[in-house]
Amino acid sequence: MKRDICDGHPLRHYFVEALHDTLDREFGQVDDPEVEQYIGDMLVDFIDVDNIFDIHDAYGQKVDAVVDMLVEADIREAADSFDREREVHRHVGDFLLFWSGLFPEFLKQMKAPGSRDVLLDPIRQGKFSYYVVSTFEHGAYAHEARIFKKLSDEFDTYRYGLNLVRASFEGFARQGWVDGFRA
Hints:
mainly alpha; two-stranded antiparallel ribbon
């Protein structure tokens, strides 16, 4: 995933802090800073819609249906390496955590009649995709495996946390806050 907004940008810090504060407030615990950082980075990266739909097939076409992403992740189907399998499953986990946490109403659209994702359980698939990524416990991926294991195991918690973060953004809008200024 390309980084359109630099690592030190205040927006990255804001998303990480918003998630941390929400989880701390709701669950009374300090969570895993590396997981929170990962989710914050994902949120900032997904500001650019091109990053949300970052998976392309062998012909360079964007893949926007999750079932098609899963074909791209399957080493027996379209993935040309285990690195590609991991990359696509990571993206599927991120994609489903993002949509199910911040915009759960989008999931209904994914399951609309005629959708290729009609049989997909997005929560179960998100957990499973993160689990697949967590099994890459060697080499350059060793450190990150733990992060993805936690994202898999606690997918519902992070999804709920993102939903609460969204509610806090909506609270700012209802209070008349626009672009950081009182309207």
